[in-house]
Write the structure tokens for this entry.
Amino acid sequence: MSFSVKLDNVALTNNPSHVLVAEPQPTATPTAGYGKIVYVPRIPGQVQLQWGGEVAVPAVVAELRAKRGSVPQHMLSWTKETGVGLYHRNVVMPIIAYGQGPGAAIDTFTLTLEEYRSFPELTLWEFWVPNTIVVGDGQAKIKMPAGGRIMKVGGYIGTLGTGAGQTRVQVSNGATDYLSTPGDFVVASATGLMENAALVASPTFNRGDTLELDVDTIPANSNSANLSVWLCAIMFAV
Amino acid sequence: MIIQQMTTPPWRAPGTITVADGKWSWKAPYAGEIVSVGGYITTLGSGAGTSTDIQLRNETQTKDILSTVGAFEVNSATNLLEGQVVSVANATFAKNDVIDLDVDAVSTNPADAEVWAVVNLFMDDV
């Protein structure tokens, strides 16, 4: 059975015939009193892609070179043997070149990719404002356990409200706003999703910063309710 | 591109829950796939043998994500969502797809539910 393999969520034209995964496994050592010590190795695993003679090696190398580009880190995905579902790994791809072999036979070609644990970590934080919404800074707050950078912002409102205006929100650290264009939940929205929000050029925060959701405006009838605004942020170690 | 796994913000059904599509929505910030789904309901409602059944639906691609809907059984001892099965064929979503919470059935006067999903996100901007 051949595998369906994707690089950065795009299927390879020249599919490998095998995917071999070599990953260190945790080990458990029994101790007195029915306890155990679990050792989790921190060395990275490897994924080997093997192409047989059914595809031309130059074509494989050319495709891998093109898909790698100048970026070593990539996402590798492949189907399970049942043909459904996907395995995924973050891998480092070496620079690949093609040289003249010693003979006329087409050799199998194996590419070893080292896994890596992606860092910074992506996290999601939610500001939740239940019930009727009122104007004011700091309607919900999060104290950040590490520094980081906001990558995405979005939201949904359970009750849009009525009347002129909209529920307009800003995210700040108490002093600096993170949205160059605030997020709007317009009363005529067909989806309830946040609109218009745009992040500033460098929406970073420090460890211990308190991020807050500010409500700048509400509809004229003051009846919007149940607001959820979320941030996707990559977190640093400090 | 890198893959990272995280939990979505919850889809909510605040207050008394009624049967309807699109009770809550989430716009996916990246392409990805749904790995598993869970949920909790504060008030189970009443009515012997009934349940409050929920579905997650990819509104953008018009497909149900659960091949078996999740149920808040009226006689649940835990108030947790039960029985839900993620459809492998429908688990993937594209960037900016809108995923909705649908309520397919209700017990008598259930209230205040939350549903969440563990997702693999394919980050294309790092």
Chain A touches chain B through 32 residues (CB under 8 Å).
